[in-house]
From TrEMBL:
Keyword S-adenosyl-L-methionine: no
Keyword set, alphabetical order: Glycosyltransferase, Transferase
Superkingdom of origin: Bacteria
Name of this protein: Glycosyl transferase, WecB/TagA/CpsF family
Signal peptide: none
Any one GO molecular-function label of the UniProt entry: hexosyltransferase activity
Length: 242
């Protein structure tokens, strides 16, 4: 895989790619494993407080600008880049990965959700090998069994929907035992794919307002959304030192 240039956002690297889908597919085809992070403002601010998360992001093989805030931070210093939402990245990659009969494991969400996604994707992406799935309700005592299952399934890609930062911490541990797998943190995407939750209308997504729709549908996110103005302030304080 060609090494992509990066640009920093609050000291976290964001890879600059004209085609993030191709970058993900190339990472899988290389066969050496890897970690894909979908970075948004909330995650970037959390990384300012949690050194472990910051280290994981810096060591990731592909960091894509998932959030509008990250895109804004890059654009204001002359980086012409568009948002690449993690859910869109994975959906776009499934076609090319299906053509090479990639083995994909789904991990996360409530019981039955990942299985529903597997059922839908078997019909939608002919050739894709959904080699296994498991919900996100497991503890440290299940780690060895889960690792054995991933190894037995010969998984090439694991989509991990455990939420931030839990999914990143789990991926870090999993890579120590199974480094040849490409792990992608997908947050709550399984619920969208399974149809248990609705995504924001396209016009909101295209205008970087998906966060507003999520706040409308899930008011409990209000406290977490405080990270957005804090992120903007942190970027403005740094001026153009990028």
């Amino acid at each position: 895989m060609t090494v992509l240039p990066t640009a920093p956002v609050l000291d976290l690297p964001v890879h600059l790619s004209g085609d993030y889908t191709a970058s993900l597919v190339h990472l899988v085809e290389a066969g050496r494993g890897g970690h894909v992070v979908t970075l948004n403002a909330e995650m970037a601010m959390l990384a300012q407080r949690e050194a472990r998360l910051a280290r994981i992001i810096r060591n990731a093989d592909l960091v894509v600008p998932d959030g509008a805030g990250v895109v804004w931070a890059l654009q204001r210093v002359g980086r012409k880049i568009r948002r690449c939402a993690g859910i869109d990245l994975v959906e776009a990659a499934m076609g090319p990965l299906a053509r090479r009969r990639t083995r994909v494991f789904l991990l996360g969400a409530a019981p039955g959700v990942a299985e529903s996604v597997a059922t839908l994707w078997r019909e939608r992406y002919a050739g894709l090998v959904l080699c296994g799935w498991r919900d996100g309700f497991f503890g440290p005592e299940d780690t060895e069994a889960l690792t054995d299952e991933l190894r037995r399934c010969q998984s090439e890609v694991v989509l991990v929907g455990l939420g931030v930062p839990k999914q990143e911490y789990w991926i870090e541990q999993a890579r120590q035992k199974l480094p040849d797998i490409v792990y992608v943190g997908v947050g709550g995407s399984f619920d969208i794919w399974a149809g248990t939750k609705e995504r924001a209308p396209r016009w909101l997504r295209e205008n970087y307002l998906e966060w507003l729709y999520r706040l409308y549908r899930e008011p409990w996110r209000a406290r977490r959304m405080l990270a957005l103005p804090k992120f903007a302030l942190a970027i403005l304080k740094r001026g153009v030192r990028y």
